[in-house]
Each structure stands twice: as structure tokens, then as C-alpha cells.
Amino acid sequence: MRMTAETPKHGGLTTKSLWTEDIFSVLVASFDISPLSVVELTVLAGANSQFHAMQWPRCSMLWRTGCMLKWKKNWETVSSKLEHLGERLRSPHVAARAAIVGCADRFRAWAEEDRCRAAWAVAAVLSSVKWVDLENRGYIVRLLASGLVATAPWGSMSTASAVLEMVSRERGYSDEVDGLLREVGVGDLLARLVQHPSTSVQRCALEAISHACDLGCDPLELSGTDAVPAVISIAQSGCYDNKLAALEAIHWLAESSADRLKAAIPVLVQLLGHTSDDLKEAAASALWALMMSRQETYPIEACEHGCVPKLIDLLRRDKCQRQTILFCLERVTMPPAIRHMALQAGVLPLLFRSLQDERDKILQECILGMLLSYSSHVSQALVQQDAAERKSNIRQLVAISRAGSSENCTCARQLLEHITQDSSLTQ
After folding, report:
1. Is 328 within the bounds of a domain?
2. 106: confidence class by pLDDT, cuts 50, 70, 90
3. Which end of the chain is less packed: N or C, by CB atoms within 10 Å?
């Protein structure tokens, strides 16, 4: 008997045609935020003679990512709903109820199905509520989290989706929620989920890691788990979408787990040469976050793996966001030896070109600072330009120098002083 999740034609159902597959088809196609439990399904189908011959259908209702439910603001009802779902995450009563209708041999599969349904429902309900609005918030967080951390390989996607909703900042994720999730072991759960063979489960877990660490901290203590090496591995050899998600996770983990992310540096440098502009940009962002961490040797590590020519090539192509590339170059060229390497690779003309197009004062400061670090070479770089380009660059420096008394004005004036000292430019 074939099961289907397509929307049934309710008007076509009659007493004679109301077979078990029709019952399940109706239930599966329903968008009720709290899918019927296995116990309720058993009651509905128990009287049907064909039910006992059926294998239990894996028909958990997928929650559509990005959808939000519209609740009437009755938070007491929502709290009650979540509490009920938290109990269903355990589903110990399902086995006993299954035995009543003579299906004790299938009780485990039924319990798994019920827990999976409950996890999807938790994700759905949490998509439109905030923790602060709920009564007994601490109790509900602990109840749901403790149910989700129980080993459930059959329901990994629903578990990952529910955890993602729990750690979302949109839910009003707070220090209190942090502490409860950490105590229950959600960090270890995410470490398991990010190593799951399913790419969808991996991606959901990666997004949850990014959400949890997006304030530059590690509230779930992920740095002490296997999550970090798993994220690096996905960034290196995962599918395209998961690579992007892993790079974002590395970016947010950089501040709190930098000491465990050294192995990510060659991976990030390699991805700077990827054919995808989005991957290049994400890799540059993650690399910058690592180089700005407390690990002072990371910029040198990145250079040893060849990041300087790749960053300059990205700046030359101008297909990625200039901001991230410039910040990376600023950080990596602080040591004189590496600064000379960038000079040999042709960074100065690119810095002048970037300054021409840039109106953001923070990025202007970044570019001017790098130009000033090459003050003895600036004049020679201008001499090698054609007259129109050279004139335009000098005009830009003059305009910035007259814009006020900011740090940018001071840098521009200093550069102009070096330029005016070169006789070949003042003739």
C-alpha cells in the first residue's frame, strides 16, 4: 500500500474509501503545527483491519524553513503547547499504547516516529515566539533541550531544526538560555549533528553553530567538542552550500575557538582561489576573523600558505567585496617582510585604484594607512602611472586632506608631503 504526502482530495473520501492510507495521507498533508501523535494515529487506525498488516509509515511532517506561524498572543497556550511537545520528545508512553492494539513488535519505530513529529512541531512553534514571552521559560527550555539531546539518529533533521530555532537570536536567545542549553549538553548534540552523513543535517547544525556564536563567544562550549574539526573538514571537502555555511561558522568561532582553528588556515587560503566568488568572499571573511584573533602567529601562517598573492589577485579582479580583502591585506602586511612581498606583487596601484572609488571613511583609513606604510615607494608608483591616472590619484589625496581634521586627513597630508618631495612629480 503506497503512502503519499500529497494533499488529498478531502471531498473524494467516503466511508468505503477511508482506508488506512487515506487516513495517513490526510494527516501527513495537514499543516497543523502539532502533528498528531502516534498514540492518536493508533486510535484512529486501530479499528481498521488493514492497519495491523502495515509497516509503520515514516511520514513525519517537515517544517518549511523560513515560514513563521501567526500566533494569537496567548502565551499561556503556547507555553502549554511547548510543554506538551517536550513530553512527546521522550515518548515512553507510546510503547505502552502500541502494545494495546497488538503491535508491541513495532513500538520502537512508533516511538521514534512520535519523537520526530514532536521535534518538527517544536521547530514550527518556536519559529514565531520569543523566549521572553513564555511563562516558565527556564523550565520549558530545559524540558525541550533535554528531550532533543537524547540520541535519535532516525530524527536528526527534525532535531537539528528544533535546535536551530532554540539558539536563534530572533527568539531572544539570552544568557539564561545559554546556560540551560549548555548544562543539558546541546553543544555535544551539535557536534554530533555536524558530523551526520546527511548534508541537510550538517547544514542545519552549521547554521545553529553560527547563530549560537554570533556574538564572538562560545556559550555552548563548542570549542571543547569535535565540532571544530568537523566544521573545518566540511569547509574543505563538503558540498557547496555546506562549505559556505562552514566558512560562516569558522568566522563566528574565530574569537572564542581560535586556538583550535589553526588547521583551517590552509583550507581558507586554498578557497581564496576557488572559482566561486561567494566562496572566495566567505573564505576571506573567515581568514580575517582568524587573523584578528588573539593568535598573533596566524597572519604569518596565512602568508606561509600563500595568501598574499591570492588576496592581491582578488583585489585586482574586484569581484568580491573590497572591504574584506582590504582588511585582510592590512592585517597581513604589518610585518615588513610580508609588506615587501605585497609590494613586489603589485599592491600599490591597486590601493590607489581602491581609494579612488571609496567613500567609506573606515575603508579610506585602511587604504591610507597601507599607502603610508609604503611612503618611500608611493612616488615611484605614481610615476609609473599615465598622466591622467596620476593626476586623479593626487586630486583624491588633496580632497581627503581638506575634508577636516580626522586621521584620514592627516594620513593624506603626509602622503602628499612625500609626493611633493619627489622632483619627477613636481616638474
Report:
1. yes
2. low
3. C
Share of the chain above pLDDT 90, in %: 42
Angle between helix axes 107-126 and 92-100 (nearest 10 degrees) is 130
The answer as to whether 49 is a domain residue is no
d(CA 1, CA 103): 18
pLDDT digits (tens, 9 = 90+) for 109-168: 777 777 888 888 888 888 878 888 888 889 999 999 999 998 777 778 889 999 999 998
- Segment 251-269, tens digit of pLDDT: 999 988 888 999 999 999 9
Number of domains in the chain: 1
Q: Does 287 fall in a domain?
A: yes
What is the extent of the structural domain holding 299? 262-345
* pTM as predicted: 0.82
CB count within 10 Å of CB 65 equals 12
> Long-range contacts: 340-346, Cβ < 8 Å, 24+?
341/303, 341/308, 342/308, 342/312, 343/374, 343/377, 345/308, 345/309, 345/312, 346/312, 346/316
Neighbours of 156 (CB within 10 A): 23
Residue whose C-alpha is closest to residue 97's, from 110, 85, 86, 88: 110
CATH code for the domain in which residue 301 is found: 1.25.10
> What confidence category does residue 4 fall into, taking pLDDT thresholds of 50, 70 and 90?
very low
Distances in Å between the Cα of 223 and the Cα atoms of 161, 196, 261 are 21, 18, 9
